Amino acid sequence: MNLKNILLIGGLALGMGMAATSCVDDLNLEPNDPNMVDPSNPDFNANSLAICYAGIATSGINGPGSSYVEGLDAGTSAYLRVTYMLGVMPTDEMIFLWGDTGIPDLVCNTWGAENGIIGGAYARFMGHVAICNQFLANTAGDTDATIQEMRAQARVLRAYSYYNLMDNFKMSSFITEEAAIGEKPRQVDSPELFAWLESELTDIVDNKLIAEKPYYGRVGLDGAEALLARLYLNALDFSGTERYKDCQTRCDNIIARHRGGGFQGSGLAQHYLYLFARDNEAYMPGGSKPAENEILFGIAYDDQMTQSYGGTTYIINSSIGQDCHFMNSMGYGTSAQWSCFKGTKQMAEKFAANADDLRRSLWLTTKYAAENKVDADGNPVLDANGNPEKWAGEDYSDEFHGFTGDWKTCGGNAMVKFTGLTRNAAEDGGFSNEINNTQFASTDMPIIRLADIYLMWAECHVRGGHGDLATAIDYVNLIRSRAGIGAIGAADLTADFLLNERCRELYWEGTRRRDLIRAGRFVGPRQLIWQFKGSNSDRNGTRIDDRYKYFPIPNSVRSAQPDFKQNPGY
């Protein structure tokens, strides 16, 4: 895989605009290599746009260990890594077993405004806004049709970062390319940012400012409208007014463009697992399977050209380990095994009723290796003869059977979703078991898939009463049919059912925290309880305060701009 006209050109020009280290000095970006940002260079605009994509795919200009965000490890602060940590770790989908500073608080929903990962996420999002703003400032007033379309792409990428700021922090720094050099961002609350995002995205989509069939690796009409649909789906929380009908209308538009090919004529990929394989580029915009273009918005990766410790490298390597499952990393197409992602008991239970659901078919469901028992203080448990007692091999769906409070421990469910293996043409839907001698992934990262759009449509019916029941059921059963499980009926289609079905379909894709919030299941009187929620010492979990609905505005941001308000409870 390569990044064709995007990052292979722009990868040589990552010196431009990547010197920003502060989320508040938005337009104070000095080029590291003046030759690369010379407007007379014929590749100037392509290079500039490439950096808008690279700002999401990579962490810095000098390989995976570099970063344009200071104060946090380059690998940890990678854009799609911090997005993932904020969107998945605080939910019932995962426990991260490493005890790195800030991680247990994310897993247990016990964070504060001093958490470095939260601060790094805010800086990363605003740093990316700065990069997009610079491209838009450089191309302002250019009426060339190609440049105008490139500007639309940069606006969508910037909208994605502002969406992440609103989703995670509610209140956000805000600045556009029209700001004067040295001007600081102002703080906006979610209703104002929602209105701006709606205006931006509707302008791009309704006026067809962006390509319907973009080059591989670029965002197009589907990606822009899918982001708008996601905005409308969560409008009640963001703006105070529900917009389910508008969400469903946007879903209708996207579905209509994809009808006729793919799984049962839906436009979905024929094989679910192939969407998460090394060569899933086929299902990306501009990929080789346009009839199965399920990844509406995605970020392209290449193990040589776009190395990052975020994105799919992070997900694949983190889910592989030999702590107690003895997983062979080469069997998953990577040379690394970080042994830190594990599923919770509650996550496994979502698949309990359908053991044949192929969406969990990559999970390692064999027994744990037998290991010595320990008591609550970590001391060996001895039998009557004074010999160490051993755990019988525990089933994958059990709790953390040997957990002692040390986060780097044995336990949890060995879940795998993304792999470094390539698709296999065999009818059984397997993967080729080639050896990849690098820890970096070439598996592209889906941001929004068509399956999500079908499930959004059904949820808009359940929550808003829009569209007919039969269509909503058909859309859900389409997703379930591809997974190899049975159809549901009208009585099954409830908000809680959809919440679980979205988890089964979209787990580890970064949607869970927002889904739980929208359903009233993350905080509040109806919140769900899962392992370690609310306490890093209580494996059964406990309730959390309403303040954890949003992350705090980082101390570093408020120190730079003392007039910025803090979210309630912090």
Descriptive overview:
The protein has 17 helices and 8 strands. The protein has helices at 4-10, 44-57, 79-88, 103-108, 116-138, 145-169, 190-206, 221-233, 235-239, 244-258, 311-319, 345-349, 450-464, 469-482, 495-506, 512-518, 555-560; strands spanning 95-96, 172-174, 186-188, 295-299, 341-342, 422-423, 431-432, 445-449. Helices cover 36% and strands 4% of the residues. The protein starts with a helix and ends in a 10-residue tail after the last helix. The longest helix has 25 residues, at 145-169. Strand 6 (422-423) and strand 7 form a beta hairpin. The relative contact order is 0.14. The chain is mainly alpha-helical.
Secondary-structure element series:
HHHEHHHEEHHHHEHEHEEEHHHHH
pLDDT < 50 runs, ≥5 residues: 1-36, 393-398, 401-405
**Structural class by secondary-structure content:** mainly alpha
Helix content: 25-40%
Oligomer: single chain
Main sheet attributes: strand count, strand direction, barrel closure: 2 strands, antiparallel
Query: Mean pLDDT, as a whole number?
Result: 86
Give the strand line-up of the largest sheet: 1-5
The count of helical stretches stands at: 17
- Radius of gyration (CA) equals 23 Å
Beta-sheet strand percentage?
A: under 5%
Shape: globular
Number of strands: 8
**N- to C-terminal distance:** 45 Å
Describe the structure in brief:
The chain is mainly alpha-helical and 570 residues long. The protein is built from 17 helices and eight strands.
What's the structural blueprint in terms of helices and strands?
Elements: H1 4-10, H2 44-57, H3 79-88, E1 95-96, H4 103-108, H5 116-138, H6 145-169, E2 172-174, E3 186-188, H7 190-206, H8 221-233, H9 235-239, H10 244-258, E4 295-299, H11 311-319, E5 341-342, H12 345-349, E6 422-423, E7 431-432, E8 445-449, H13 450-464, H14 469-482, H15 495-506, H16 512-518, H17 555-560
Antiparallel strand pairs: 1-5, 2-3, 4-8, 6-7
